[in-house]
Design brief:
430 residues; alpha/beta
Amino acid sequence: MTNRTFRFPDYFMWGSGTSSHPVEGDNLYNDWWEWEQMGKVKERSGKACDHWNRFREDFQLAKSLHHNAHRFSVEWSRIEPMEGEFDVKALEHYREVIAELKRGGLEPIVTLHHFTLPIWIARRGGWFSNDTAKLFARYARKVVQTIGDTVRYWVTINEPEIYIFKSYLTGEWPPGERASYDKAYRLAAHLLKGHVLAYAAIKEVKSTGSQTLVGMAKHTAIFTPCNRNSLRDKVSVWFRNLVVNHVFIKALIEGRMMLPGFFHVRLPRGQTLDFIGLNYYTRSFIRNDGFGIPGIYGEVCPPGHHPEVRRRNSLNWEIYPEGLFQIVRDFSKYKLPLLITENGVCTDRDEERSQFVYDHLKELARAMDQGAPVIGYLYWSLLDNFEWADGFAPRFGLVEVDYQTQARTIRPSGMRYAEICRSGLLPMDS
């Protein structure tokens, strides 16, 4: 593929993404806002990017960058701030968000759950509660019925495994639990059930004359043995790849969730995926700690431990473009459309962002040249934003945000990406 230009297909979706809590500001009724007010993180989201009030300006910027798609999330806690009480004004706001995207020629890709929960749900036990999956499906139905008539792409849940890990294993995110692995797997079953029931609700509402596609945005990562000659390290890499990258997708395709030897749950339907959203950022080196649980899962080697690592972002994640090729080729086996729902870099050197985008698109093109069914690429993110427990320091945006004035400035990397979005062409020999 060297010394030539790759042409992306005409149907390809180009764009970027945002998430409600990190950009909207003043999400007063969710568990993350409460977590921040309790002093559990170093910074509070506050007004964030004030996207709730500035979404038209932000979508005009996306349009000027030749994006034709945009992923965003609706905030459950705004739509249903009290149990069973749906806020008409909040729903109307999101209807206008969708209409504004459509006016600008951007395909809306709507995420229903991006890490936050209404406080009333959190106080009932969050996703540990047996009722939450049904309540999530009720919320999904309400959203689709009232504002979803022109939306084709729905993402039910963003990165369920990261949500479980951060909220219920490390305790960094609300509710701050350090649960057992067995309990974490049972939480996974509830999240899977939430997706399945929401999928059914969306399909029922959109059953007439619709080409609605429903998927999940999956966190993915590349895992490499710390010692390539160690059988133990290789076993941990195999197991971690299965659990982190594939268990959720396999469950939603096969209608059951299985982990070797100790966990099995049947889901109430068969296949409930129309496309797979892939979030890819980095690679980790893994060393084995034994063959019990959690030892077989392995331990991530600390930063600076492995000599192969050449570049890192400002959160100390390795920049490993080849991993996107590997992930896309691996997930092609499911024979479903693949959408890159997140891929981006936080850095204070914008030339690194430009190189990141080019290097990853080159690997994506290489996979597509070998037949990978990729339908779009969404950079994370359109704007600098509140990055959860890491606060405002990590800068991912194609558009810089001055948090004091809320001024927006398109970065040179945004302009370089815009040219690829406009032309659909990527030189492969640079």
